[in-house]
Design brief:
The protein is mainly α. The chain has helices spanning 4-15, 18-21, 35-61, 79-90, and strands spanning 67-69, 74-76. It has a two-stranded antiparallel ribbon with strand order 1-2. It is elongated and about 60 Å long.
Length: 91
């Protein structure tokens, strides 16, 4: 089979963990029907989100939580809300 995106996708999902690829099921062939869509999702959604999660966790552990100012004064966003939003993106 000369389907380059499918070969790239299969190689990627065999190396990366499910939180990065989005293939949570154990069945063989997860995402193989639309490999270009899954590669796009991997590169432009999942990898940046996992990167942001790692940076956020590092910042929280160093004592620098997420602080937002919406014009009425700044406030700290609770960690559970931030983690919940990130995990909802990665579901």
């Amino acid at each position: 089979q000369n389907n380059v995106p499918l070969r790239i996708w299969r190689g990627t999902k065999s190396v990366l963990p499910p939180i990065v690829t989005g293939v949570w099921d154990d069945e063989e062939g997860g995402g193989d029907t639309k490999p270009v869509e899954h590669l796009y999702n991997l590169v432009f959604v999942r990898m940046p989100t996992v990167g942001c999660l790692l940076v956020y966790i590092r910042n929280v552990l160093m004592g620098h939580p997420l602080v937002i100012d919406v014009g009425d004064g700044s406030f700290e966003v609770p960690t559970l809300i931030v983690l919940g939003i990130i995990l909802a993106i990665l579901r």
